[in-house]
Each structure stands twice: as C-alpha cells, then as structure tokens.
C-alpha cells in the first residue's frame, strides 16, 4: 500500500546511563550539554520522544533531550489536510502500537479519550481521515510540549573539540523574532522530513503567487486571483502523477467548480498503487533487516522492484473517481478537465497575469504553449538537509555509511552521534520515509543512544 501519507507529562532522567548531574558545563562556555537534540518534531522524532520517555520511566531517570521545530506548532502535512483525504496506512501503525499496544499514546486510546471509539468502530475502516490522524499526532505532541521549542529554525550543526577529538556538537538556531541560540549536545537526530522538490524549469517562478508546491496548497490556493467564471473559466494545471496530484485534481473539482483542470505528467498513464497483502510485507519492520543485510546492488534492485508501492502511483479508489469524472464529461459533451500523459514541461514564464507552460509531447515530439492561472507542483520532496545544515561535519564523516541503528559512520576521535530519520531509503528500504517503521526505528535509535551514553559515562 502507498504509505507516504508519501511528546508525557512528567520527566524522569536515566539513572546510571544519563546521570543526574544537573546542567553540564561545555568546553568553553556555560551552556548545558544535552544528551541528544532532535532537529524537527514531526512523527519520527515524536515516536522517538515516546521511546525515550518509556526508557526513562523504566530506569527512573530521563535523558536530557530537546527537540527543535521550525513550525510554530505541531502540524503534519498542513498544506494537504484536505476535507476528503484519507490515510493510506492502518491506524494500527500509529506512533506506538506495534511496540506496545498498551501505551497511552495509541490511536485507539486517543479515540477513547475523545469519546469517539465506538463511533470509529462503527465506521468499519482501518483508515482514518488525514485530518483526524493529524489531530491524533497533535494530541500526542501536546504531552511532550515541554521538550520541544517551536518556531526554532536550525541554521547549522558544527563540531566542537580540541585537536583530533570532537566531544560535542554545537547546534545553532534562530527564533522567528531573530534571536539566535547555540546548544551543545552529544548527539543529534535529524528528522526534518523532505524539502519541496522544485523542478529546475520552475525555479525562477518561485516568487509568483500563481505557482507553488503542493505542500503549500491550502495556504495558497484561496489567495490566487482567478477569473470569476462568467467571462472565462479559471485554468489550473497540476504537475505530477502520484497520490498527491490525484488528491489535488479531485479537491479542485469541488473547491473551484468553475475551473478547467489539467493533470500533466510524463508517464503513459496513471498507475495504481500495489497494496496487496504479500507486497505490503515490504513495510514490515523485519524487512528492514533483510534490506540492510543485502549488498548495495541488491538493495537497489529491491527498491526498484517495489517502487510501484509508493512512487508515482495512486490508490485505486481515487483512480476510479477520476476516470468517472472524465467519463461523465464524454456523456455530457463538456470537456473541461483533462489528463495530459507523455507530457514534459520544458519551459515556464509568467506574463500578463498567467503562467505560460511550454510542453513537449513525447509521442509526437511537438511542443505547445498553454496559459494557466495556477500551476501546482505535486513533484514530491528531496532529502538533502544533511548537506545544507551540516557541511562542517563532512571532514569527520567516512564514506556516508549509515549503520543499522541509523547512525552515520564517523572517523576515529569523533564522539558525538548523528542519527538520521527518513534519510536512509537506499540502505534501509522503501519504508524509511513512511509511517510504517516509525515505532521500531524510534525504539532502535533510543536504544543506540542509551548504549552510547552508557559507554561514554563508563569512560568518564
């Protein structure tokens, strides 16, 4: 199944592993040393926060951990919380159930606390709406609000030490009001999610109000000036052929009923996601062990073989709805909405209040120029935050190897841990950017952090 859709109330520091020493002094100033700093506070680091909290409760002490989140509050894919959008993953793959179904942070307990459990059961569905799942995540995040600094953008992560020995990392961040802060830590966990992927042909138009990435859809679409439909119908292009593009295509039908909507993509046809039960086993946590244990060439082959579970594919029910819309157009004779397969955008300019796309038809080799009032880029995400905020760490890394525990390999003398959440698909498999393995990944990183801290404490 396509699963791209792609915080406890008391603290107890860990006895013996995370010693209760009070604020630790750094090498050259009075800043306390954190045991770990999480960069980003979405589902991945939220699941880690739960795992660390559980470990702290078992041992009677909590690690000194802080999470930094650039958003002002917890919102999961806020730009795509569409009224008619549903999850593509079972609610049982929430933040904790696969590890501990008795946890107070399960989706079922969330329903119970909010008085909706019996009503949800009567829905007879494993798949909540995306709006409800976001509400669940926000509810859990609220229990960890004292451990997260919202509205805090990380600028850089730098090494700190003397000679060939690096003891700590310095994390530089900035608040919305311009205030900057530096924090010292023994480990960082990067879980920032993907950055919107903007194709080069659209880069020079990023300042335009008429073109934007799908991640900004809800915050931007209602503010775009459009014809009223009386003199001319609005023309909207959605670029892409995946689940997000399909959801936008359908949402625009009801949000702007007077619009003509085109879905432009390079492939031959819209493709269904393979969500059959045996194929779905690639998202099982133990499949990560299998993928990681393969040589690099075999890993690539596995990912390529199962790419149809997650990339440029659409749930079958959405495909049926789109096909029905286009069929009804044939019945009525009013052809307003269109699919544009085998089409690549090779040029884009803004002129006279419109975005003019130059497109290439792969079948004919012909180009055409067509004006649109709005262009929405459902072009996915890129994941290169490591390079953008940690360039000064490059000399201390080896060959980019990522351990089974999601820790980056570093050179001798480099003591801090650098952990990645959602950046390890080439080594850990297709589930790495999805929700399926959040529970076990958070647990594995927490255990690695605890073991590393115990080793450091023993040396001290």
Provide structural commentary:
By secondary structure, this protein is of the alpha/beta class. It folds into two domains: 239 residues, FAD/NAD(P)-binding domain; 147 residues, 3-Layer(bba) Sandwich (FAD/NAD(P)-binding domain), CATH 3.50.50. Helices cover 28% and strands 23% of the residues. The chain is built from twelve helices and 21 strands. The strands form six sheets. The protein has a five-stranded parallel β-sheet, with helices on one face. Strand 5 and strand 6 form a beta hairpin. The N terminus is likely disordered. One of its GO terms (biological process) is intracellular iron ion homeostasis.
Report a brief summary of the structure.
Helices cover 28% and strands 23% of the residues.
What's the layout of helices and strands?
Elements: E1 33-34, E2 36-39, H1 43-59, E3 65-69, H2 107-113, H3 117-123, H4 130-142, E4 148-150, E5 152-162, E6 165-175, E7 180-185, E8 187-190, E9 195-196, E10 211-213, H5 217-220, E11 235-239, H6 243-255, E12 260-264, H7 285-292, H8 296-305, H9 316-332, E13 338-340, E14 343-351, E15 354-361, E16 367-372, E17 374-377, E18 381-382, H10 385-389, E19 397-402, E20 408-410, E21 417-420, H11 425-428, H12 438-459
Parallel strand pairs: 1-7, 2-3, 2-8, 3-4, 8-21, 10-17, 11-12, 11-17, 12-13
Antiparallel strand pairs: 5-6, 6-7, 9-18, 14-15, 15-16, 19-20
Helix pairs in contact: 1-12, 6-9
């Amino acid at each position: 199944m396509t699963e791209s859709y792609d915080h406890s109330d008391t603290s107890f520091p860990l006895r013996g592993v995370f010693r209760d020493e009070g604020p630790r002094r750094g090498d050259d100033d009075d800043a306390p040393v954190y045991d770990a700093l999480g960069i980003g506070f979405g589902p991945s680091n939220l699941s880690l926060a739960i795992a660390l909290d559980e470990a702290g409760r078992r041992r009677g002490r909590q690690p000194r951990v802080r999470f930094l989140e650039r958003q002002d509050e917890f919102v999961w894919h806020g730009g795509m919380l569409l009224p008619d959008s549903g999850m593509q993953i079972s609610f049982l793959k929430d933040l904790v159930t696969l590890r501990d179904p008795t946890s107070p942070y399960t989706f079922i307990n969330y329903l119970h606390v909010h008085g909706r459990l019996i009503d949800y059961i009567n829905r007879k569905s494993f798949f909540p709406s995306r709006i409800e799942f976001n509400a669940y995540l926000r509810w859990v995040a609220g229990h960890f609000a004292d451990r997260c600094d919202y509205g805090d953008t990380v600028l850089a992560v730098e090494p700190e030490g003397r000679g060939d020995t690096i003891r700590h990392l310095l994390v530089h961040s900035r608040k919305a009001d311009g205030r900057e802060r530096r924090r010292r830590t023994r480990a960082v966990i990067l879980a920032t999610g993907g950055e919107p992927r903007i194709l080069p042909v659209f880069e020079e138009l990023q300042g335009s109000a008429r073109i934007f990435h799908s991640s900004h859809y809800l915050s931007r679409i209602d503010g775009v000036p459009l014809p009223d439909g009386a003199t001319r119908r609005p023309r909207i292009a959605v670029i892409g052929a995946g689940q997000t593009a399909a959801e936008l295509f359908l949402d625009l039908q009801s949000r702007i009923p007077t619009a003509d909507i085109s879905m432009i993509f390079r492939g031959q046809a819209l493709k269904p996601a393979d969500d059959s039960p045996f194929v779905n086993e690639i998202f099982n946590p133990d499949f990560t062990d299998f993928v990681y244990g393969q040589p690099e060439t075999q890993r690539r082959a596995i990912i390529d073989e199962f790419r149809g579970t997650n990339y440029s594919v659409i749930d079958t029910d959405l495909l049926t709805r789109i096909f029905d819309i286009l069929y009804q157009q044939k019945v009525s004779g009013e052809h307003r909405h269109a699919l544009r397969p085998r089409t690549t955008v090779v040029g884009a300019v803004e002129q006279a209040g419109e975005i003019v796309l130059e497109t290439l038809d792969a079948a004919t080799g012909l180009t055409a120029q067509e004006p649109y009032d709005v262009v929405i880029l459902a072009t996915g995400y890129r994941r290169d935050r490591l390079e953008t905020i940690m360039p000064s760490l490059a000399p201390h890394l080896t060959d980019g190897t990522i351990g089974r525990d999601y820790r980056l390999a570093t050179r001798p003398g480099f003591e801090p841990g650098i952990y990645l959440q959602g950046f390890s698909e080439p080594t850990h498999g297709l589930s790495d950017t999805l929700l399926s393995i959040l529970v076990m990944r958070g647990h594995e990183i927490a255990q690695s952090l605890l073991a590393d801290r115990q080793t450091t404490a023993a040396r001290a």
